[in-house]
Specification:
- With about 475 residues, this protein is α+β, with helices and mostly antiparallel strands.
- Helix content is about 50%, strand content about 15%.
- The protein is built from nine helices and twelve strands.
- A five-stranded antiparallel beta sheet has the order 2-1-5-4-3, covered by helices on one side.
- The protein starts with 7 loop residues before the first helix and ends in a 10-residue tail after the last strand.
- Bound molecules: adenosine-5'-triphosphate and magnesium ion.
- Adenosine-5'-triphosphate binds next to helix 7 and helix 9.
- The site of adenosine-5'-triphosphate has 21 residues, from helix 7 and helix 9.
Length: about 475
């Protein structure tokens, strides 16, 4: 359906009106020709009879023709017979021998023609119908042409047509009215639905009742209900997220308040120092949390467009990131290594987001791997595209937690580490934004954790 259609009812009515109008015209034209045909038949018989009477009066075909006799024929002045009739007798070459008219013989009237021939013509601006007959005579063939005007025929045709066209027009109008009313009734459930939606409270996401809607509209209602259901889930998730974020932010702020009060109350420089150190830690936690929330918002669908995607060398990006964490790893006596792909590892993406992702993965690996552990950041080329992974030999993530650790604020209790549970959800959002597949499994020797991000091959690289 074209975009310009604003009302289904007027669209359908328009279509119907055009179709019925065309139908009416076609049936009128067909009716007109059928009427002419049927109206001509009885008049033609009468005209032939009249021609035979003229022939009898002139004794045509008897061998004793009396061409000087003038037969009496209607001249159109009689109310009962408003048509004027004239006749002409010609020889076989069409030369006039007798008659009160100058009727030209029809072109198709050949010399060897015997039967009566009816033809249409015109006399003094009036339409005529003529019958032509042939008779043998001593001097060759004689032709008699009797022609009459067609006023009576026209009046009959007009009468019959009026009787066909007017009832048809009325029928068309009645059909239109019935369809218009039917449409109005048929579309009433839609109108009810519209009113239902318009009058809703803005928080009301309850499903639309499609039970009384026409079957054609039900798929649309189902789709809208499906959308409402998803919207409900999204809104619930948003509410949960806001509540969780507020809850998480409250902890560092509460710490700040307590420690500040403590520092203000205390006169001992040592206690003041201690409180200030706590204030610094709480502030750092708060800043990290806010930064993570911002990272999440940036990488959420609709958070940032993909216009800043550029072609990147994953080897270089991963190496730079890893180098920044070496110091932290050393502090915990962890062996942090990097294995790059042999060739250039080109992917399309947002460098900042990818670094954010890798930082979160390395941060987790260092945080949860005990002292003396190993971590490897790896970039490899597979047949499907580039793959980047962070693998450690720490405690690993139990299979029952593997799906859930990517949820926002989800943490596994008992690790002894602080955090807010946003790191892996940022990783998941960045992967999704890059169309990459995220895989969490154990390390290569079956212990520890390995999180891999499989990037799709850039479009231009696909084998054609
Ligand atoms: N490499 C890992 N080894 C073991 N457990 C891990 C590892 N990475 C993540 N986890 C578990 O997954 C949970 C979720 O990780 P996530 O990074 O989302 O949050 P977090 O590290 O707790 O907090 P933060 O928001 O500060 O990163 C962690 O609490 C941890 O229990
Ligand atoms: Mg983390």
């Amino acid at each position: 359906m074209a975009n310009s259609i604003r009302s289904l009812r007027s669209y359908l009515m328009q279509r119907l009106l055009i179709s019925l109008y065309l139908l009416w015209i076609v049936s009128t034209v067909v009716g007109y020709f059928a009427t002419i045909n049927y109206a001509n038949q009885p008049y033609d018989i009468v005209l032939l009879q009249r021609a035979n009477e003229v022939a009898t009066e002139l004794k045509l075909g008897s061998g004793h023709e009396q061409l000087d006799v003038i037969p009496t024929l209607p001249d159109g002045s009689d109310v009962g017979m408003p048509d004027s009739v004239v006749y002409t007798v010609t020889d076989s070459e069409g030369r006039k021998l007798a008659g009160n008219g100058n009727t030209l013989r029809p072109l198709s009237y050949r010399r060897d023609r015997t039967g009566p021939l009816f033809s249409n013509g015109e006399r003094e601006g009036q339409k005529t119908r003529m019958v032509s007959l042939t008779f043998p005579s001593k001097n060759g063939i004689l032709q008699l042409h009797v022609s009459e005007t067609t006023r009576q025929r026209q009046a009959l045709i007009r009468g019959i047509l009026a009787n066909i066209v007017i009832p048809q027009l009325l029928l068309t109008l009645i059909a239109l009215a019935v369809v218009w009313y039917g449409l109005k009734q048929g579309l009433r459930p839609l109108d009810r639905l519209r009113r239902d939606v318009v009058n809703r409270h803005r928080d009301d996401l309850s499903l639309l009742d499609g039970s009384k809607a026409p079957a054609e509209v039900r798929p649309l209602i189902d789709a809208v209900n499906d959308l409402l259901e998803r919207l409900k889930q999204v809104m619930a998730a948003q509410q949960r997220f806001v509540a969780d974020a507020a809850h998480q932010l409250r902890t560092p702020f509460a710490g700040l308040k307590t420690q500040s009060e403590l520092a203000l109350r205390s006169d001992e420089p040592e206690r003041k120092q201690h409180a200030l150190e706590h204030i610094l830690t709480s502030t750092q936690h708060g800043i990290r949390l806010v930064n993570q929330l911002l990272a999440l918002a940036r990488n959420e669908p609709g958070g940032q467009s993909n216009d800043n995607f550029t072609s990147l060398d994953l080897n270089q990006l991963a190496q730079e990131c890893t180098v920044n964490w070496v110091h932290m790893a050393l502090e915990k006596n962890i062996d942090l290594g990097f294995e790059g792909a042999s060739a250039t590892a080109e992917v399309r993406g947002d460098a900042n987001s990818l670094m954010e992702m890798l930082n979160n993965l390395i941060d987790n690996a260092i945080r949860y791997t005990p002292e003396g552990g190993h971590i490897t950041v790896r970039v490899i080329a597979t047949k499907h595209g580039m793959e980047m992974s962070v693998e450690d030999n720490g405690p690993g993530i139990e299979p029952q937690h593997r799906e859930r650790v990517f949820e926002r604020f989800y943490r596994i209790l008992g690790t002894g580490q602080s955090g807010s549970g946003l790191g892996l959800s940022i990783v998941a959002e960045v992967a999704k934004r890059h169309g990459a597949e995220l895989v969490l499994d154990a390390g290569s020797d079956g212990t520890g954790t390995r999180i891999s991000i499989r990037f799709p091959r850039p479009v231009s690289d696909h084998p054609s």
